[in-house]
Write a sequence for this structure.
């Protein structure tokens, strides 16, 4: 079994609200995040507006808070550590979800994670403000085809592959002018649809410089320990458990392509057969299923989905 944690773009207004209302362990997470930030992020999460929630400085800690709240509720319902007692083989996350994964695996404390995401989101927001860019998802195209199209473009502005999500979904980051040129060049390609993502900048591209160095400097001054289960890195698409190396990879991730398809295939090759997505929406669950239809997937984000999972798991282990 693997645990995966979603990234930016998965947010929606009201996520986690039922968990907050019903479980004190979930409420404690949101309250602690609010206290660390010294502002009511929970109010934005539960009430919006979506434009404010989508802002990088809100979206990153918000998605992390909801995911950790779900995990705390899971452990409360099961009455034990899921990592230790139920054989979680790997953890991973998509972009900011990687930070959530490390918090879940006790490599980072919740306080350190919130403060780290403060630094990360501000640094990325600052970089985004300088370049007037965004991200688009290309459905129906694979990595090699998009790489070839990008090489053929005659643009002086940055336009780079940001996420290799599946064999039929590639995300590109760039300045808006270059993205428009790319969209026009896709008319004779296998791309079936172009979707503008709910993000506020061209993440995972060279346009994020020098945010990576800001994050690395902060990382070097906080404590990080070995995760209780290995992290499959966005940058290497391999298992990592050395805290010093993970710090470098977290910073590098900001300007690097997220190798999600390769990450999932790596975990499958090493025995993963069941994927549990912990956090808002079903983005990663759907991607995992597209990568390998034989994988069992489940998204946990609400009271109902947690209770359903507990019931199903109880039957399987009875």
């Amino acid at each position: 079994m693997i645990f995966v944690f979603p990234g930016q773009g998965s947010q929606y207004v009201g996520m986690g609200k039922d968990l907050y209302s019903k479980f004190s362990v979930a409420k404690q997470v949101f309250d602690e995040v609010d206290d660390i930030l010294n502002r009511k992020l929970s109010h934005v999460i539960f009430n919006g507006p979506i434009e404010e929630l989508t802002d990088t400085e809100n979206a990153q800690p918000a998605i992390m808070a909801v995911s950790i709240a779900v995990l705390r509720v899971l452990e409360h319902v099961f009455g034990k550590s899921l990592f230790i007692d139920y054989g979680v083989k790997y953890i991973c996350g998509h972009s900011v979800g990687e930070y959530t994964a490390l918090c879940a695996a006790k490599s980072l404390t919740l306080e350190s994670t919130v403060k780290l995401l403060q630094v990360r989101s501000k640094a990325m927001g600052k970089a985004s403000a300088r370049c007037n860019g965004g991200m688009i998802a290309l459905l129906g195209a694979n990595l090699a085809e998009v790489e070839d199209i990008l090489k053929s473009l005659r643009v002086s502005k940055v336009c780079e592959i940001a996420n290799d999500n599946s064999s039929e979904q590639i995300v590109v980051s760039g300045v808006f002018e270059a993205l428009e040129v790319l969209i026009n060049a896709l008319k004779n390609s296998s791309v079936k649809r172009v979707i503008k993502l709910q993000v506020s900048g061209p993440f995972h591209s060279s346009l994020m410089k020098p945010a990576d160095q800001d994050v690395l400097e902060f990382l070097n001054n906080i404590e990080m320990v070995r995760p209780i289960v290995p992290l499959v890195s966005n940058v290497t698409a391999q298992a990592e458990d050395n805290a010093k190396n993970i710090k470098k990879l977290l910073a590098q991730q900001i300007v690097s392509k997220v190798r999600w398809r390769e990450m999932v295939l790596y975990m499958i090759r090493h025995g993963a057969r069941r994927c549990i997505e912990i956090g808002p929406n079903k983005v990663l669950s759907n991607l995992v299923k597209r990568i390998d239809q034989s994988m069992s997937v489940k998204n946990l984000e609400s009271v109902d989905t947690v209770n359903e999972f507990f019931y199903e798991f109880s039957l399987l282990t009875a």
Notes: The first strand starts at residue 2 and ends at 5. The domain at 132-197 is CATH 3.30.70.250 (Alpha-Beta Plaits). The mean pLDDT is 93. The chain has two domains: 2-128+206-317, 132-197.
